[in-house]
Design a protein that fits this description.
By secondary structure, the chain is of the alpha/beta class. It is built from 10 helices and 8 strands. Helices cover about 40% and strands about 20% of the residues. Strands 3-4-2-5-1-6-7-8 form an 8-stranded mixed β-sheet, sandwiched between helices. The radius of gyration is 17 Å and the shape is globular.
C-alpha cells in the first residue's frame, strides 16, 4: 500500500468524522450535505468514504471515480491518485473533492494494525492540503472504524429517535471512550419527525451516557425529516443542489455553520 506524502505548505485543516451506531440513520447523506455546506462557506473540503464494506458516496452522488481506497490498499495507486472532484471540485465554491470506497470490499476489514495506522496517517497528511476533511465512517464500532474516528479532531455521532439507534450509539461511544477516555463526540439527531421528538431522543441518550459512562454528550444539531432527502438520493444528487430551500438542507447548513464557528449548540 502506497500512501503519498502531502505537501506541507499550509496549516492542517480539521478532520471531522461522521459516525453512527447502526446503519440506516442517514449518515452518508449528512456527510455529503456537510461537505457541500462547508464548501459554500469557502472551505476547501475533502470527503472520504471510510466504509469499504458498504461504501456508497459515489453512488449517492452519481460519481464514477477512476480509483478508490481499495486500490490504494491494494498498492495499485497512491492516496492522492484516488481524489476525484465533485460539483466542480474543492477549488470551486460549493464543490469538494471525494475519495470513494468500494462496496463489498474486504480490504479495510483485513488490514493489519500497521496498515490501518498507515491509512489513517495518510488521510491526516492529505487533509493538510484542505481546510477540512470529512470521514464518512462505517456504522458500528469495529476496529477500523474506531481507529479512523480517533484520527479525527471532531466526531459527529448521528442518531435518530429509534430505540435501536440510541442503543447502538451508546455502544459506539462506550467503545470509543475505552480507547480514548477523552473522546467527546457531538450528537446530531437526523430524520427527526419534530424538534421536540429530537430533543426527547437526545435526552434519553444523554441520560444513559451520564449514568453509565460519566460522559455528557452535546447536541450539535437537529435535521428534520424531509421528503426531499430520499428524493435527492434517488436522483443521485446532493440535497442542497436539488432542493436548496428544503428544511433538511437548511438544517444541514445551520449545523455546518455551528461546526465552522467551533461553537456548541443545543
Amino acid at each position: 500500500m502506497k500512501i503519498a506524502s502531502a505537501p506541507q505548505s499550509r496549516a492542517a485543516g480539521r478532520v471531522l468524522a461522521i459516525a453512527s451506531g447502526k446503519g440506516g440513520v442517514g449518515k452518508t447523506s449528512l456527510a455529503i450535505g456537510m461537505a457541500r455546506a462547508l464548501s459554500q462557506m469557502d472551505e476547501r473540503v475533502l470527503l472520504v468514504d471510510g466504509d469499504l464494506g458498504m461504501a456508497n458516496i459515489d453512488v449517492q452522488m452519481g460519481l464514477y471515480p477512476n480509483a478508490d481506497i481499495a486500490a490504494v490498499l491494494n498498492g495499485r495507486v497512491e492516496l492522492t491518485d484516488a481524489v476525484a472532484p465533485a460539483l466542480g471540485g474543492s477549488l470551486e465554491r460549493g464543490g469538494f473533492d471525494v475519495i470513494s470506497g468500494r462496496s463489498g470490499s474486504g480490504a479495510l476489514a483485513n488490514l493489519s494494525g500497521t496498515g490501518l495506522t498507515k491509512l489513517a496517517t495518510g488521510i491526516a497528511a492529505l487533509s493538510m492540503t484542505y481546510d477540512r476533511a470529512i470521514l464518512d465512517l462505517a456504522a458500528g464500532a469495529d476496529r477500523a472504524t474506531l481507529r479512523l474516528a480517533m484520527t479525527a479532531d471532531d466526531v459527529v455521532l448521528v442518531i435518530n429517535d429509534e430505540p435501536t439507534s440510541l442503543t447502538d450509539a451508546y455502544a459506539f461511544v462506550k467503545s470509543l471512550r475505552l480507547h480514548d477516555d477523552g473522546a467527546a463526540p457531538l450528537v446530531v439527531v437526523n430524520n427527526a419527525p419534530s424538534r421536540a421528538a429530537a430533543h426527547e431522543a437526545f435526552g434519553a441518550f444523554k441520560k444513559t451516557c451520564e449514568s453509565f459512562l460519566s460522559f455528557t454528550p452535546v447536541l450539535a444539531g437537529v435535521i428534520r425529516r424531509d421528503d426531499a432527502v430520499p428524493a435527492a438520493i434517488r436522483a443521485q444528487m446532493c440535497l442542497s443542489v436539488r432542493s436548496p430551500q428544503s428544511e433538511a438542507a437548511q438544517d444541514i447548513q445551520a449545523l455546518a455553520g455551528t461546526l465552522a464557528r467551533g461553537r456548541e449548540a443545543a
